[in-house]
């Protein structure tokens, strides 16, 4: 694990290459804590952050639960993310809830993956429509 920064008196914060894995070391002497972030897809538009948190809290300590909303309409996009304090709790929740029916919808629960950088954005010869266009 690579330590990415250190603030005097506050400790170090390190981030590994895996999504959702963060280590916090206080004064370089305490144990490393790891978290796991889950992707939850197919949720009902009526599901909010609190409902999502309650749904997963039965499996362990949830640090964060966030439903993603469309910035233009303000309506849920039908997916969200849940971050567990412990990897084992996240694994248990993923196994128990993936493929289950919640509010009349079958949800998918997977380990969250790192976002891909935007493709075809400025100065790149990729228009997003496929093919290997070399010039405009």
TrEMBL record:
InterPro entries: Nucleotide-bd_a/b_plait_sf, RBD_domain_sf, RRM2_NsCP33-like, RRM_dom, SLIRP/GR-RBP-like. Residues 36-114 form the RRM domain. GO terms for molecular function: RNA binding. Keywords: RNA-binding. It holds the Pfam family RRM_1. SUPFAM superfamilies: RNA-binding domain, RBD. Signal peptide: none annotated. Residues 116-136 are annotated as: Disordered. This is RRM domain-containing protein.
